Amino acid sequence: MDSLASLAMSTEPPKIELLDRPPYRRDEYIISRKMVKHLLGMAVYEIFIVYAIVFAGEYFYPEPEEYWRFGRKTNYVFPGRVEDWDGTPLWSVYKPTVGASRHMSNVFNVFVVMQIFNMINCRKINDELNVFTGIFDNYTYLLIFGFIFGG
């Protein structure tokens, strides 16, 4: 997915404001402070959300089918971690017969949606508020975005 997102971003035509700025000096960094701010902000956001789902998802992710609760009295998804904090086996008991856990599938799906969200946000690096400005100017970007989103 990241390779396709990189391809989509590389097909963006240069903006006039980028062409009008003075060139960078030879000793300047390629990644600016604003870029680092955006990278760290998105990383902290994603880590917080993914860890919250991994370690507390069994307390707020609903499980509509009773079979997938594996005898738990709650209406939430069965924890997909291999073991609990005290070493008690959780998903390791059910993995040989059932396969992948629905809990960790939710974690993966949330991560993929956050990456799609990040693909839209990384189009603007200078703190612009409207990330959708000019999104329809690049049909290759839209085609690759549609392919990733559809996948």
Explain this structure.
This protein has 151 residues and is mostly helical. The chain has one domain (2-9, 32-150). Helices cover 49% and strands 0% of the residues. It has six helices and no strands. The chain has helices spanning 2-10, 16-20, 33-56, 95-98, 102-121, 139-150. It is elongated and about 65 Å long. The mean pLDDT is 86.
Concise summary:
By secondary structure, the protein is mostly helical.
SSE blueprint and pairings:
Layout lengths: L1 H9 L5 H5 L12 H24 L38 H4 L3 H20 L17 H12 L1
Please supply descriptive tags for the structure shown above.
mainly alpha, 6 helices
Biggest sheet details? none
In percent terms, what proportion of residues is strand? under 5%
Spatial extent as radius of gyration: 21 Å
Helix content: 40-55%
Number of helices: 6
The CA-CA distance between the termini, in Å, is 10 Å
- Summing up helix and strand content along with how strands pair, one would put the structural category as mainly alpha
Gross morphology: elongated
Mean pLDDT: 86
What is the strand tally? 0
How many structural units, i.e. domains?
A: 1
